[in-house]
Amino acid sequence: MEGRQGVMVEVPKGGLPQAAGNNPLVQLQTKFKEVEGRFREWLSKQSIPVEAAVVTSMSAAQGAVIGAFMGTLTSDVSSQLPPQSNLAPQAMASLNQAQALAVGPFAQARNFAVMTGANAGISCVMKRIRGVEDVQTSMVAAFGSGALFSLVSGMGGSNVAVNAVTSGIFFALVQGGIFKLGQKFSQPPTEDVFYAHTRDMLSGLGLQNYEKNFKKGLLTDRTLPLLTDSALRDVKIPPGPRLLILDHIQRDPELMKGRR
User: Fold this and answer.
1) What are φ and ψ of residue 2, in 5° steps?
2) Least packed by Cβ within 10 Å: which of 43, 50, 167, 235?
3) CA atoms of 121 and 51, how far apart (whole Å)
4) Burial (0-12, 13-18, 19+ Cβ within 10 Å), 248
5) What does the angle CA 201 – CA 206 – CA 211 come to, to the nearest 5 degrees?
6) Which helix (H) or strand (E) segment is 109 a member of?
7) In its UniProt record, which GO terms are filed under biological process (predicted)?
8) DSSP 17
């Protein structure tokens, strides 16, 4: 395409790129995050009963949707279960549990609404009272949701109370294990803790590929104020990156304090 000054300007296929700020999807996501942030801020200022009621209701609604969907998948299973006559007591208990799970969409919606709502509500109250979200909070919430799920779903059979407690303990142990695994894999390795400032510095300079050189030479965060050209050369960092790193250290007042 020829411009006003006779210069050829090539327009990419599909027209000019649309600015990110004018993208309806980006604007919708941004607006949603703003509304969500304001809602969370408002909710955190409410009393414990109000927050628990709101959180429980919202989580129960989500659980009902999930349960209804699962109910459509398992509604045909109940028709394929064997008759209950002439079955041993243990087999009868297992059959009752299977029938409790193989119900229609409305019953499953109720079951999952109770389970997810109770879990979220108890967790909310525990966090507000104790001020922390830890494995104990997670396990208590899971116990309550498991026990209520057993009661409303009919999994308990004749031993309602015993099976409710058993289900609650099972849910608590599973949730506790999941919480611990999540903590283990979400936390960085112990080694990386000693290179947090180093990693930030290298990333800011665009030299993140040289983090392995620092680790190989055991140049931890504590050694940053002491770094010299020869030390960086010993870990095989090229001259250009060495100059950038040393210049950054000299310009950083916090790091320069370590040299005194």
Assistant:
1) -90, 130
2) 50
3) 8
4) middle
5) 60
6) helix 105-130
7) protein insertion into mitochondrial inner membrane; protein targeting to chloroplast; tRNA import into mitochondrion
8) P
Angle, helices 24-44 vs 48-74, to 10°: value is: 130
CA–CA gap between residue 20 and residue 2 (Å, rounded): 27
| Helix 196-205 × helix 239-251 angle, to 10° | 110
In Å, how far are 107, 125, 189 from 80, measured between CA atoms? Answer: 18, 42, 50
First to last CA, the chain: 63
Contact present, 233 and 210 (Cβ < 8 Å):
no
Look-up of token digits 């949707």: 65
User: Contact 71/106 with Cβ under 8 angstroms?
Assistant: yes
**Residue (of 35, 24, 116, 36) closest to 70 by Cα position:** 116
CA pair distance 35, 57, nearest whole angstrom: 18
